[in-house]
Amino acid sequence: MKARPSRSIVARGAPLQIRHVILKVDDLDKALAFYTNVLGFVKTRDDRRGSHRWLTVAARKGPRGAELVLEPNSHRPARVSQQALYDAVFPAAILSTNDVAAEYQRLKTLGVKFRGKPKQVGSRSFAFFDDTCGNFIVLLQSEATGSTHR
User: In the chain, what are the domain boundaries?
Assistant: First the structure.
């Protein structure tokens, strides 16, 4: 039986943070336009080294946190996986908002294709939309202010 580290050892290390989440896309420029011009994110990095491009976007407002890495699905396993998830309507990411109904209307006006109207499950509202880059994204009503992470 393997011993587990004591709580004091775990607590002494620097806390881990979520900084980058990779989102496979079929076209970097199209994805950048959608995530900035339509969804309202800001481009945070666009570094090019040879044929490689490190492209990230982040929320315009709110606490500084995770960035979405827009990464080309240029390898066959990435394309096959992305297509299978898309066909199964399995979300690639969850984006939160304070008002799903208002954001749904705003995005519909901008031409975003939703997979039905927002739904309510318990106290949470959500809607699925197509990011035009090979992914379904969930738009989720964020919890009430003051909620805590567990």
Answer: 18-141
Class of 18-141 in CATH: alpha beta
Q: Which amino acid is at 123?
A: S
Cα gap 86→119, rounded to integer Å: 20
Please tell me the pTM assigned to this model: 0.84
Structure confidence by residue, pLDDT tens digits, 23-32: 999 999 999 9
